[in-house]
Amino acid sequence: MASVVNEFVTSVDEYYGHYLDTTSGYLANVKQMLDRQERTRAAVPAGTDLDSLGFLYGHGDPNDPANRLLHQTTQGEFKRRNARGGRNGMLASHQLIVLLYSIWEHEYRPRLSHALGLTEPNELKIPLLGDLRLLRGDVIHHRGIVTRETVEKLSVLSGFKEGAEITLAEDSVEALTRAIKAAMDAIVVQAGAPDPLHRKLWHVK
Question: How far is CA 102 from CA 6, 8, 50, 106, 118, in A?
């Protein structure tokens, strides 16, 4: 049982590390764009709004007709979406929510339930991960907009408002991953307790 918990916690830590690498990369993108704008300022007419100029991703020389345009935006939007608190960071937190709940639900919850001697995976209910399921549903099915059902059913996580976009700041993502690890630690501590004592840890709806 402990080995399953350790494996899940390791996976949580791996995905959180990926999130940290990703968000750090966004900030590096902003710095690179600012450096690029500083270098090109002298080459454009005075008063030019550099943030309004285009920024392109593509394959090949941009001046070659055979170039394949992959994505285009403005330099200003590129900076805004990569800035701390920008849309890229928000989307990264959405991806983390989906990944963490998916590996729990489809891989580790069944294995841990079996190790604990439960008949069905659904018998193992951890409120925090139940809340993650609700947020994951809003990310997948409602473009990250919090629904009334989610607000009414959240039992551990708070601060989400109906109709608002799910926004998790970096400190909130850190708190979430720490809370998941703490919940797993608690399962290990309580694993030796006879049924139904250990079930006090798990909220059965």
Answer: 17, 12, 42, 6, 20
